[in-house]
Structure formats: structure tokens, C-alpha cells
Design goal:
Distance between the termini: 58 Å
Number of strands: 13
Helix content: 25-40%
Order of helices and strands: EHEHHEEHEHEEHEHHHHHEHEHEHEE
Oligomer: single chain
Radius of gyration: 23 Å
Shape: elongated
Number of helices: 14
Length: 422
């Protein structure tokens, strides 16, 4: 059977899997599997709650079908696993979703099939963790009866410019022939082109350092923000000036959450520790970035005191709860760190975010979001924690008014319109 005739199954239909299923569904027979029945019901109605895919795109994927029944994927020839890879409460990699997805695929595996992983992992998970599961359950032999590949996802939630097809794709396979087939498969949908890595482990390593590098760079500017605050220098103005040099990297300070940058470095750190090396820079960057929520809360409290506002019982508004701007994803949002720290001062917190789902926020964080744009004059202070485009046009206060005290974490307002910026 030629690659053109093979049926593809995408296992996991979140931010990564759905766009992939849509693009393949435009070209060839594709099955999208997700164990969340509500998610499948929504997708069958051409609705994507992540807002990554619009209704028109569903219509273009004429060869795509959705199911929550693992028994309906046994006719697939290529399985692509796109489930999340979170960490547990101790920041150790949690491979439960990958393991369960692998078990599901293994029960349907047949001679000649290819299993490709896109989930972010540390080097070796595909062949050392997943392959033994595939072999044990299927009874088939690796690189004889079935094959594997790894092609790391590079989805940037909320980014409508750097979409799936416009981002160069790293590919790899468990044999030279399978590497060629996997690369050719992705070339059918990726207009930006592909890069064929020399091995699965190289591809896994490339993915995990992409986000670790960003994490470290953001940690650097977060540390700069703390230093410049002590020196009474505006960090945003410093970065703007430094940015005039052609090779200066344009990172900005802020909260680092989500399911990629705030998580992936722990995967590499875990593997490094396993082989006897304690990673200094990677973990120090993680510690610094994870400290920013508490730091922002402390700076805001000091600002309230300076402006002679009450602390205990103060009404404070938090603008934004998602992990990044212009995106509904609330997973691993570090805004909650600000909220928890402020609550230790017996402050009354309200949260407004037009992008977030009220039910998901209530379930995940126990917070009831405001239904509409609040009256800012009802609050002693406002923390703009997320830089949603919706917030930029809101007039929260005039520069000569004392209330509310405005702390702009993301620097979306002019300096003369706020009381402080990170």
C-alpha cells in the first residue's frame, strides 16, 4: 500500500491534534480519536472550543471523521499520538496520557503500521517507554512488524500567523526507510517544509530544548525586571532601547505558564538527573519563573500601601486568567499564583477574562468569573495579568486619579496611564 492510500488516525484532539487532523483530512482518509465524548460531539458539530480551527476549516476536511470509540480506529495504518505530557505536583513528568494512548494504539496495531509521536517528551521515551508497551500488547516486533517515528509539535495557541502548515516540521523514523516515509507524509501538509532528523532521539531532544531555551530567556528578563525595579528604572524602556541592536532577543518579563514552556524543561531536567547530571541553568530558570506570581503580588501590595489604599478587605480586580494572551487555554496558568498570594492578605478578589470558559475556570481553580466588563471604580486596585487585545481599548483609569491603583504586568498600557509596570 502506498503512503497516499494509507489511513491516518490522530489520537488526541486538543490544540495539537485537531489542526493536524484537519489538514490531513483535506488530503486523505483520517480518523480523529479523543476519549472526551463532549469534545467529539462538539467537533462533529464543527465547533472547536480551543478556537484554533474555525467552522469553514471543518468543511474543507472532507475525508475526516471523529470518534470516541477506540474500536473504530483498527483500520488505520499510521497512528499519530498528540496527547498532553504534563507534570505532577512535584514537577515530575506524568506519562499517563502517553501510556494510555499507546495502549489504545497497541490494541489496534497490525503488521506494517507506523506509530508517530508528537507529544513533548524527554529523549528516549518513544523507544524506551512506548515501544515496549506496543510490543507487549500487540505481540508484534519493533522495526520488523511495526515502526515508529517522532515529529515534535510546534503549535503556538492563539497565534493565527504561525499556524501548523506555516511552521517547519522536524521529522524522524525508526529506520531510514520509515524516516523517509514519515517525512514525505508531513510534506503533504506542511507548506513551510520539513527537516528530517537523524534519529528519533535527536528529534525528541530538539523539541524539549526549544521550550527550555525560551524559559531560560524569559527567566533572564524576569530577573532584569526585579533588578531594574530596585533601581527605579522602567524595564520595558530598557528592553526597547536594547532591542535596537540587530541580534538582541525580544523577550519580555511576565508569568510563564501553559502546557509547554512552563512544563517541558522539567522533562529534560528529569532525564539529566537520571543519567547523573544535575541541571543548573534549566532548573534555576524554572524556579525564577515560578516565583513571579508571588513577586507580582508583593509588588502590588507595596503599591497599594504607597497609594494609601487599604489592604485587608480591599476589592481587587484581576484582568485575565488564561496562561497567555488571546487564547482560552487556562492550563497551568500562573495567574493563580498572584491570586493565592493576594488572598493571604484577606483581600477580596474578582476575576474578569472574556476568553476563558467560566465552567472550566470554576472547575480548575474554584473561581467564578465576572460576566461582563466590570466598573473599575468599584475596586481599590487592578492587576492586568494577561495581555488580551480586548483589554488594550479599556480605559481603566485616568493618570491623575487615585483609584483604582493599576499594576500592568504585561506592559500593554502607556507608562503614564498606569501606576506601575512589571
Amino acid at each position: 500500500m502506498s503512503a497516499r492510500e494509507k489511513t491516518i488516525c490522530i489520537v488526541g484532539l486538543g490544540y495539537v491534534g485537531l489542526p493536524l487532523a484537519i489538514e490531513f483530512g483535506k488530503k486523505k482518509k483520517t480518523i480523529g480519536l479523543d476519549i472526551n465524548k463532549q469534545r467529539i460531539s462538539e467537533l462533529k458539530s464543527n465547533y472547536d472550543k480551543t478556537l484554533e480551527v474555525d467552522a469553514e476549516e471543518f468543511g474543507r476536511a472532507s475525508q475526516l471523521s471523529f470518534t470516541d470509540d477506540p474500536n473504530e480506529i483498527r483500520h488505520a495504518d499510521i497512528y499519530i499520538v498528540t496527547v498532553p505530557t504534563p507534570v505532577d505536583q512535584f514537577n515530575n513528568p506524568d506519562l499517563t496520557p502517553v501510556r494510555k494512548a499507546t495502549e489504545t494504539v497497541a490494541k489496534n496495531l497490525k503488521l506494517g503500521d507506523i506509530v508517530i509521536y508528537e507529544s513533548t517528551v524527554y529523549p528516549g521515551i518513544t523507544e524506551d517507554f512506548c515501544v515496549p508497551i506496543l510490543e507487549e500488547i500487540s505481540g508484534l516486533r519493533y522495526n520488523s512488524d511495526f515502526y515508529c517515528g517522532y515529529s515534535p509539535e510546534r503549535i503556538n495557541p492563539g497565534d493565527k500567523h504561525h499556524t501548523l502548515t506555516r511552521i517547519k516540521k522536524v521529522t524522524s523514523g525508526s529506520t531510514p526507510e520509515i524516516a523517509d516515509e514519515v517525512d514525505a507524509l508531513y510534506q503533504t501538509i506542511i507548506t513551510a517544509g520539513t527537516f528530517k532528523a537523524s534519529s528519533i532521539r535527536v528529534a525528541e531532544s530538539a523539541k524539549v530544548i526549544e521550550n527550555a531555551q525560551r524559559d531560560i530567556n524569559i527567566a533572564f528578563v524576569n530577573e532584569l525586571a526585579k533588578i531594574f525595579n530596585l533601581l527605579n528604572i522602567d524595564t520595558n524602556e530598557v528592553l526597547e532601547a536594547a532591542g535596537t541592536k540587530w541580534n538582541f532577543l525580544p523577550f519580555k518579563p511576565g508569568l510563564v505558564g501553559g502546557h509547554c514552556i512552563g512544563v517541558d524543561p522539567f522533562y529534560l531536567a528529569q532525564k539529566a538527573i537520571e543519567v547523573g547530571y544535575h541541571p543548573e541553568i534549566i532548573l534555576s530558570g524554572r524556579r525564577l519563573n515560578d516565583s513571579m506570581g508571588g513577586y507580582i503580588a508583593d509588588q502590588f501590595i507595596k503599591l497599594l500601601i504607597q497609594k494609601e489604599q487599604k489592604i485587608k478587605g480591599a476589592e481587587i480586580l484581576i484582568m485575565g486568567i488564561t496562561f497567555k494572551e488571546n487564547c482560552p487555554d487556562i492550563r497551568n496558568s500562573r495567574v493563580i499564583d498572584i491570586i493565592k498570594e493576594l488572598e493571604t492578605y484577606e483581600i477580596r478578589i474578582s476575576v474578569y477574562d472574556p476568553w476563558a470558559n467560566k465552567e472550566e475556570v470554576a472547575h480548575e481553580y474554584g473561581i467564578t468569573l465576572l460576566d461582563e466588563v466590570p466598573d473599575f471604580n468599584n475596586y481599590e486596585g487592578v492587576v492586568v495579568a494577561v495581555g488580551h487585545a480586548d483589554f488594550e481599548s479599556l480605559v481603566i483609569k485616568q493618570p491623575d486619579t487615585a483609584r483604582p491603583v493599576l499594576y500592568d504586568v504585561k506592559g500593554i498600557y502607556p507608562k503614564d496611564k498606569v501606576d506601575a509596570r512589571l
